[in-house]
Amino acid sequence: MTQGSTQGSPQGPGSDRSGRTTADTVLHLFGQQVRDTPQAYAVIAGTDSLTYGQLDVRANRLAHHLMAGGLPPGAVVAIGTARRTEIVVALLATLKAGGAYAVLDVEVPLTGQRQLAALAPHVLLTDAAHHARLDDGSGRRVVRLGAEAAEVSGRPSEAPERPESGETAAVLFTGAAVPRAVPVGHARLLAAHEGWAEVMRPVPGDRHLITHGPDLVPFAAGWTRALCSGGALVVPERTPWTPDGIRRAVETEQVTVVHTDPVGVTRLLLGDAGAARPGAGAADGGGRGRRDEDPALRSLRLVTVTGDRLFLDEQDALQSRLRAGARLLNVYGLTEAAGTGTWFELSQLPRPLDDPEQLSLIGAPFPGCRADARGGELRLTPPGGDAIPTGDLVELRPDGLLEFRGRMRDRITTDGGVFDPHAVEAVIRSHPDIGAALVAEVPDGPGGARRLIAHVAPPAGTGSWPPAVDLPDGGRLREHLEGKVPRARIPQAVIRLRALPRNRGGQENREALPQPVLTGKTGQGGAGGSGKYTAVGDATLTPAGRVGCGIAFLVFTGLLFLLLAKIFWPGSTDLGGVPNPWAFLFFVLYLFEGASFAAGLVFLFGGRAMMRRHSPGGSPGLTAAAHLAVTYLLIAWWPQDNFYRLAAKHDWPVQAALVYVFNIPLMIAAVVIAFYVTRKPPSPFDFEEADGPAR
To answer: 3-class DSSP state for residue 392?
Structure first.
């Protein structure tokens, strides 16, 4: 609930499980699949594909190797390799040997090293390519998966007999910049699998694809959704997943279930096809027609999205890209609950809702979980555990569904009090040209004052070019928010982005938002204050000082290039036969030409960054063309006039050459600049454009 609301009633637990298995660990469920369908594919990865029988044999051999090395019950085994087939073998082997597995991020060495430092594992399973990245010289035992392959293959292929194992089954990592290690017991891992099984209803023929990194919870705990239900886990053969690789795999491997994050699902379902902002549909009862189905996605029956908030209009647009009968679930999952928590799909709505672009629903608890709001904060109780404060804000709606209302850590304090930016961001999203928004508070001058900035991005799949060109500036956004948001909470400026930055777990990353560079004095609040944002270095000079420097630059460089003209074009600047005051005027002209050439050289090397900063949403190609055009407009005059003055008036070949070398390119440069400045009108509230990481 939002601040100031009353305590909500607890929700859950989810419906009673029917037909609950008697297995006491996920390893028992996997073993049942090995016995029932040993020839069925368990892992699909090109030449690295394994059947259930083959996967079991390889896991057994590695488990015997770990036990022979003295692995104590419950000891942590760190897994550091990029090949996901090897990861699956290693985590199963660890469970068979009685240990607890932890998968490391080897693609980002710093993250992997931080994860390793948080574990203090008994043994590190890695390969030659990643050993040097992860080995911190601590002296721990290292098993090189490649080097030990021959020894491991000589081990018995039957399952090891291990009468005892530790309480912990896995150590999972949060997706934060500084990852936190969370131990998860065997019972919790099994309960998470059973909760997922009841919600998603897996069948043995399912083929699952998980786009998240293997060190993150959706893969490190979510592998059970495939391998404990008789399905197959589709993984990349060598390198990590790419958007094109995911799409190809869905089509060629006939993937039926995809587990992904908001960026991944947008790229998969919307891609470059273009998705108009849903103004109607399942979320608001408008009856919008379904788009043409994508043949490459016809095999999909279920898509689960986790990692960050998903608004109703976004979920509706994504749902409309799936074939009839396919499901799309918005999942709120906790690391401590092995990826379970709450889930929502559009069919849970008892009636159409207004303003879907402002609502993010996380639905109802997973089976066995409980969820309640205490002081507005969501507290989640996993099966057999205690209530976990999440730090996230929710409201229990009259229809029984939980509505996401922001995060406590994101709260902003202003003169008008404390508020949750999620509420303002939701209203900003109601603008038809805005698909995503984050509101942040930044310093406004050296006096300690703060200023609200809105970072906005276009709706996913919009076809505008350049990207983000249709986004409103600060003035238009304030007009849109007037009367809908308290004046003290209306952002005073806008930064327009192609996409919002996100972290490894798919969550919007407020720490990575581009920050405008500040200078000047702080205004007296509101949009009309005098605080300004400008280029680095402008704050060190007064306006008078900048004018003086400009005049000094003009005189110095003009004289320099006037001297150079006498070297390159002797006689072109000779004013001996010209009477005053005309001789003086021509001398000033030569100074300006030389200064313009020097300014062009400076702009060639430093101007593009300035143009990018003052052209939010601009195309990189168009910005580059405009940058070169401005450079040419500055540098062309000095050589052109010197050549013209030396050329005979009736030397037509030379005159024609000069026209085509200088005059026509000058016209083209002017056209490029005209297109650039009219393509997107500048706004005093626009600042540096930045790209988000890959969603």
So the answer is: strand
Nearest to 359 by CA among 410, 416, 399: 399
pLDDT in tens, 391-447: 999 999 999 999 999 999 999 988 778 899 999 999 999 999 999 999 998 877 666
Tokens representing residue 382 in the block? 């996993």
Using one digit for the tens of pLDDT, what is the confidence trace for 633-674?
A: 877 877 877 777 777 766 778 777 877 777 788 788 888 888
Asked if the peptide bond before residue 472 counts as cis, ω within 30 degrees of 0, the response is: no
Cis peptide before 262 (omega within 30 of 0): no
pTM: 0.72
Give the whole-angstrom CA distance, residue 246 versus residue 349: 31
> CA nearest 435: which of 320, 321, 313, 344?
313
Under 8 Å between Cβ of 182 and 192: no
Give yes or no for a contact between 179 and 216, defined as CB atoms under 8 angstroms apart: no
Helices assigned H by DSSP within 83-184: 84-96, 109-119, 128-134, 149-153
Q: Three-class SS of residue 370?
A: strand
| Cα separation, 34 vs 159, whole angstroms | 11
Residue 237, helix vs strand vs coil: coil
Residue 584 CB contacts under 8 Å (≥ 6 apart), including other chains: none
Residues forming a β-bridge with 182: 172
Decide the pairing of beta strands 402-407 and 388-396.
Answer: antiparallel
